[in-house]
Amino acid sequence: MTSPRPRLSKAVIPVAGLGTRFLPATKATPKEMLPVVDQPAIQYVVEEATAAGLTDVLMITGRNKRPVEDHFDRNYELEDALRRKGDEERLSRVQASTELATLHYVRQGDPKGLGHAVACAAPHVGDQPFAVLLGDDLIDPRDPLLTTMIEVQAERGGSVIALMEVDPEQIHLYGCAAVAPVTDGVMRVTGLVEKPSTEDAPSNYAVIGRYVFDPGVFEVLSRTPPGRGGEIQLTDALQTMTTEGAPGGPVHGVVFKGRRYDTGDRADYLRSIVRLACERPDLGPEFRTWLRSYVAEEMPAVD
What we know:
Elements: E1 10-14, E2 35-36, E3 39-40, H1 41-51, E4 56-61, H2 66-71, H3 76-85, H4 88-96, E5 102-107, H5 114-119, H6 122-125, E6 130-133, E7 137-139, H7 145-156, E8 159-165, E9 175-183, E10 186-194, E11 205-213, H8 217-222, H9 234-241, E12 251-255, E13 260-262, H10 266-279, H11 284-298
Parallel strand pairs: 1-4, 1-6, 4-5, 8-12
Antiparallel strand pairs: 2-3, 6-11, 7-13, 8-11, 9-10, 9-11, 10-12
Helix pairs in contact: 3-4, 10-11
C-alpha cells in the first residue's frame, strides 16, 4: 500500500534581491516593504501562503532586510500607544501581521541567484514538498492559484509551476515553458528557456512566481552550474527536472487566468496600486470618483 504524500505546510519566500529597479526608494528600504495601498507587498505574499494552509514560512534574506523581519515581529510600544488611544481598528491591523504564520529567516549570503536562494532552504524544508512564492507577483485572494497548485502536486507528484499566457512580444521578459496539454488548465512541462527571443520561444506560456517543489529539487540545484548572469538559475534546474526520471520531476504547469499584480516593474507597480485601491470597499468609491474626474479633466483626449 502506497503511503500518502505528506501535506504541504512550508513556504519559502526569497527576499534577498537588491530592488535596483526602484532606486533610490530601495537604497535603504527593502523593495518588499514598498507599500501597495497601505500594507507592504511582502504581507500580501505571506497572507496568500497562509490562506493556502502554509503556516511555516521561511524567508531567504540578505543585507538590509531587517525591516522585513521587524514588520512581522511585535511592536509593543506601538501596540500600547494604539491601545491607550482606544484605536482598536489600527491595533488589530498592526497585530495581524505578527499572527499570520510561524516565520523563520536565513541569510543567503552571496547573491548567487534565485536557484541558490531556494537551495538555502534545504536544511529547513528537509524531505517534504514545499512552495516557493516570489514577492514581485501578487495573486488576488479571490483566485486561489497556490491552492490549485498544491492539489495538482498531491495528485500527480513531482513539481508544479504557475504558467500564464502572455503576448509573444513580451515572452522575452520571462522564463518560457514548452508544454503538452494534460487536462484543462494543467500542462506537462517538457522544457524551459530563460527569457528567450520571440523567435526562439517554444510557446507563449510564461513562468510566473509560484512553484510547488518536490524536495528532489535540492539535489538538482546542488549540481546546477551558474548560468545566465553568472547566477544559479532556477529555470535551469527546472529544465533538468523535466527530463525523464530526474529528481524532483515530473514537472506540471497550472495555467493561471486570474488577477495578478506585478510589483516588480515601476509602471506595473503603480497600476497594481490603482487596481487594488479601486476595489477596496473603504477606499474604492471615493477613489474611483476622483480617478474618473482626473482622467476626464487632466488627461487630454487622444484621437
